[in-house]
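Handover notes (outgoing to incoming on-call)

Open items:
1. Carbohydrate sulfotransferase: sequence verified, structure written out, both below. Nothing else pending on this one.
2. Nothing else urgent.
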Amino acid sequence: YPRRQAPETQLRDFNLTEVEAMLRSYTKVLFVRDPFHRLISTFMQGMGSSPSFSSFVQDVLDSGQRNASVAWKPLVSLCQPCFIHYDFIVVFGFFRQELGHLLQRVGLPVNSLLLEFTDSHVRWTYSWLSEQMFNELSLQQKQQLSHFYQWDLAAFPLSSSFLSD
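Carbohydrate sulfotransferase C-alpha cells:
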C-alpha cells in the first residue's frame, strides 16, 4: 500500500477506508500455534519468573487477558480473525506442507524457496511434553486455561489441543 509506508507505521495509524483498501491489496497469512504449546515454549524459554510450570500457568491466569503478555495472549485478540479475512491460516506442525501450497497459490516457485522446517519433527516431542506438563496442572487450572483460550480453540483447527477437552 503506497501511502505513509514507514517501518514504524502501524495499521491503527490509518483511517478505516485506508485500512480496508490495504487489506484488500495484500495476501493475508496467519500463523497459528496451539495456545498450550505457546505456554510451554514461553515457560521453557524462561520468559516467566516462576519455578514450576504450574505456578507459571497460575501467573498467566492471574494476569488476565488484558494484562497478558503477547507471548501467551489469545491469538484471537491479537490477530482479529473475526474482522480480518485471512487468505491462509497456517498451523504450526504443518508448515512445510501448507507453505508449499501457499507458495504455489501465490505463484511463487515452491521447491526453491522452502527451507527445511523442523516443526513437523517436533510434533512428537511437544505431544509428550504437553502431556507431562498438562498433568502438572490442577483440574481448576486446566478448566481456567480452556476458558482463557476458548475463542482460539473455537476459531482455529486445534482439536488435538489438550485444552480442547
